[in-house]
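Quick question: what would this complex look like in 3D?
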Amino acid sequence: MVKVAIVGASGYAGGELLSLLLSHPGVEEIHLISRQHAGQPVGVVFPHLVHRDDLVFEPLEPEKLSSAVDCIFGSTPAGAARELVLAAMRAGCRYIDLGADFRLRDPALYPRYYRFAHDEETLPWLSQAVYGLPELHREAIRKARLVANPGCYPTAVLLSLAPLLKGGYVGDGPVQVCALSGVSGAGATPAPGYHFPEMTENARPYQVATHRHTPEMEQEASWLAGRPVSVNFVPQLIPASRGILATSFVPLARELTCGEAVALYRQAYGGERFVRVLDEERLPQIKAVAGSNFCDVTVRISPDGRTAIAMAALDNLRKGAAGQAVQNFNLMFGFPEETGLTAVPVYP
Amino acid sequence: MVKVAIVGASGYAGGELLSLLLSHPGVEEIHLISRQHAGQPVGVVFPHLVHRDDLVFEPLEPEKLSSAVDCIFGSTPAGAARELVLAAMRAGCRYIDLGADFRLRDPALYPRYYRFAHDEETLPWLSQAVYGLPELHREAIRKARLVANPGCYPTAVLLSLAPLLKGGYVGDGPVQVCALSGVSGAGATPAPGYHFPEMTENARPYQVATHRHTPEMEQEASWLAGRPVSVNFVPQLIPASRGILATSFVPLARELTCGEAVALYRQAYGGERFVRVLDEERLPQIKAVAGSNFCDVTVRISPDGRTAIAMAALDNLRKGAAGQAVQNFNLMFGFPEETGLTAVPVYP
Amino acid sequence: MVKVAIVGASGYAGGELLSLLLSHPGVEEIHLISRQHAGQPVGVVFPHLVHRDDLVFEPLEPEKLSSAVDCIFGSTPAGAARELVLAAMRAGCRYIDLGADFRLRDPALYPRYYRFAHDEETLPWLSQAVYGLPELHREAIRKARLVANPGCYPTAVLLSLAPLLKGGYVGDGPVQVCALSGVSGAGATPAPGYHFPEMTENARPYQVATHRHTPEMEQEASWLAGRPVSVNFVPQLIPASRGILATSFVPLARELTCGEAVALYRQAYGGERFVRVLDEERLPQIKAVAGSNFCDVTVRISPDGRTAIAMAALDNLRKGAAGQAVQNFNLMFGFPEETGLTAVPVYP
Amino acid sequence: MVKVAIVGASGYAGGELLSLLLSHPGVEEIHLISRQHAGQPVGVVFPHLVHRDDLVFEPLEPEKLSSAVDCIFGSTPAGAARELVLAAMRAGCRYIDLGADFRLRDPALYPRYYRFAHDEETLPWLSQAVYGLPELHREAIRKARLVANPGCYPTAVLLSLAPLLKGGYVGDGPVQVCALSGVSGAGATPAPGYHFPEMTENARPYQVATHRHTPEMEQEASWLAGRPVSVNFVPQLIPASRGILATSFVPLARELTCGEAVALYRQAYGGERFVRVLDEERLPQIKAVAGSNFCDVTVRISPDGRTAIAMAALDNLRKGAAGQAVQNFNLMFGFPEETGLTAVPVYP
């Protein structure tokens, strides 16, 4: 039995982690850390958990926490994980970072995309951190002390591109990515752009070709392809709470029929519990995955055979955040990978 | 281990039952009966279950089915359960009816509200059928062979009224009920009134003071009060998939403060796993219960002390249908009542 | 040609007024007053008006403004209109108050419901203010210098109740009102309860039996009935931007069939341009009125004949706010009543 | 004054045309043709027009209609316009086709994309038909007898690409287009994929790289570029009633900064009433155009300077269908181009 803490527990990813860990048979103790809500019962923040007012948010005390628990799930703003991660590493506590502080291997990218810099204390841990996409890095995750849980968009995009990239099918030129996200991806803090009347019946792009998840996609795509792959990424908000639907236009290096492409994906994900490869008759949709840890993927080929169109759907708070974090947790602590993650999507 | 069948398995209630029963530890075999989709794998109807194409819909053969399984969950149109129920009863198979054929004790009400009549073969079973609202009829359900699973609206309204009715607080005059429902309550069959462009950003009443769930509410409310209680019921569709939010204006027979009323509710539901009584600071909302078997209730008193305003929220496909059916199933087969029903709401 | 100003022009009601007045043939000049956005072009606040960046928000200078324009539309928080109204009245400028400061005739109600008090300077104007529901007070509005534009909920509820109240059909006991509102009714300021992920697929009551619009409904209902009428009011937010759908349960003083009741409504509203009485086959719905100044009403009678169920739908920003304000403006300045208000609803 | 008819008047485009033409000062008579609803008043189909039950749907009689009116707006399924167009052309009646029968100049494309073929009677008219995108073909439209009103997706995509294509900035390789559409784009006929519970909180691609609007985009893009341009098109449904948001990834033939690109767009659309070019700080969004005839466009350049990302938003029923048809009508009959189209978007 494992003792865990969720830091940043009053956010959406934190709440989703709590929901998942409450029914995880291997977890015996959950500490909920929230500066803003310390001392309050969970029902104040999470009306769906009003029956669990026995659970109370606690203030953050990095040293004490690191020695009290076996694993910390950190959901903190960019650059804010430093002290906590260092405390955890010193104490031998494992750390799953749902933030972005350890996702990029190249330290030079942090100042540009996240406006903070790693230092000599964190750099050794950055080099040891494992990018926590189990379908790509399963064995490394099992042994990791520090796991960088991927961003929601990169998870969808990378899972839908991996078979093409690994198979050497991707040609020159950028991969063009258009991805839709539910508004929960923007977090629980109200702002004009997420005010209900502004977003209902709306859809809008943001951070066109400048979004922080771009270098993360490029890093892993390049690693998969064995050579530099560049990505142009256009994220768009749609009027839904949850879900990501990603479409990528991929220049093909060599010919591939749609049937061959789908077969390639089936082979790549044959043993995977959470990646469902859809056949030539079916396309991914958010409602088929929302409330679950599934990522549905498929691929089509343009009529002229020069472009592959890869698509993926997932729930940004599950496979795109908390679900994937629990999947990593299971790998790190030796539980069956699907423990606590067997819920089927809530449909319709 | 129990063998079960879902008849009408391709509808929304059927799909929800399937989702719940797939992870029920006491169920060893599930037959999915659907005339329309017999021979097709579940993924054709339910995109969220595309990974379970090992499950295939079967045609309906009442006699054969009744001897093959221990319990049938029937989700059939009004008047259509007859043959199946009779076959099940003959075979000693238990039956949980998610339809309306056995909810009303007075046979005279069926022709008026449901356009069919019971006959001499079904009447004995009508008189033995137990109204499957566990919080009101738990002991009878345990022993029942035939359970009439309540309607979604009556479940919400009755749970929010029961403490007042049982306590003798309800005075003369009708209870005025205004209840909102998500569109999944209208079923999976497309129709102009449920076409997405027509319902988004819309809200509309329907069957004002004539809805079929009215006599069901009156039957149980009268039973609780020990005297006839009449209900005026205005159902309204709102642009959501799931959820019911019911508001009832109740004439008070004697004075009651809001604090006393909430205390009365807490006492009434103290031991209940699925009814959460909200305090004077909190009000029910659909998002706090969607995806779970919870029904949240509370009550307020009008400034002049003459009217109680009782409110309830639940997920129409869980506590309002399939979740409640599984709760009844657990009672009938001796499983802990919450088995398979511990999922917390999906939020936000 | 009339010169006008909108004070509080950066809110939703202000923006709606601007949209309507921009195409009003009798308006020659529009001043947009917004403390927060003074100096900014309208496109910064209203992305739908990005082509009108020639319009710039101005700071509030009550005296100067009152002498520069013929009519002020004030959309200000409770208690904030005082100085501006006094300046306008001194300058002979007419004032249409979309706020609540002059809606209630009884000064004693303001401290309780709105946490401010009228004083000796404003009291004379309070007694001269006309409640701006044209269908009830048309002639008084024509001559008014100060019009109190009704609340969105009271407009819907009163229009749906007026024929019964005026006709002497309403018996003893409270009128029970359950009304749904789109989230734009809560204004343009983001807050957790209006954050998109919290409100989509949700519905929730608020201020149960304590909402500020209650005394406004009671005042006018009592005036219509010629005796005190009390109202229990339960407002509920639904996941839509615009729209109000109000349902009122009315105790009947004498018998009335549904046909007679609908005929009574048709007679009452025969000459009205903006009230559409729906027949026995049709029920009000938000989508049939959104984007227009229409209020659709109808009525049903309970099976026992003791309760009338009156229903109304309107667009809270049009007939519930800005549209009604323009209707009042037309009456006050001698324009045909429908000037600038002929847009049909945007459907679907 | 002009007499007009709307054929296919009970669909969404037909209803939108009716709303626009009802307030068009140059239209004196409107015939509403609907086989399905002949003899019924408009309120039966369009609840928002319940006050106009004086308008009654008529059956289709091509010869009679063509001699009774000056202009027919046809909104008919693929291949169904033949007889009506021929009758109109014989009678000297002008025809604005909101369907697809005359959009593609190459007759060989119809069997493949629309499953019908032109014949010797229609081919001469096909060659005379003008593609009704006023911003590209204004002068030809003025003189046209038969106008092929563009598809909703092509209107958005072409308006956002035209300045780059005309300016010679588009390099080799396909233009990759990802476009979101509200569900009203799929028409008024209910189907499982458009059932409210299926589409709310959902998003899904369809007809990936096979959609009928692809050759239409390629035809006009090639014409603008002066050489063949190929398009890969991925349409996606989002949970909104109205709106299109199109994103196109364009390979650049030569360097261009974002500032230069936006300036190019401003220059291209300087005199246009309905195309709003957004600056470097603003991005298109559906809510800024819904309910209006505006198309908002802008462009960004990828960090490596090799890709332009062009974006557009419009209301599929206005600028994407009925609004554009009225714009064409105005050009054909000599009315100012914005007549009847000055409504600002309904926001929020």
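Answer marked as accepted. Chain D touches chain C through 37 residues (CB under 8 Å).
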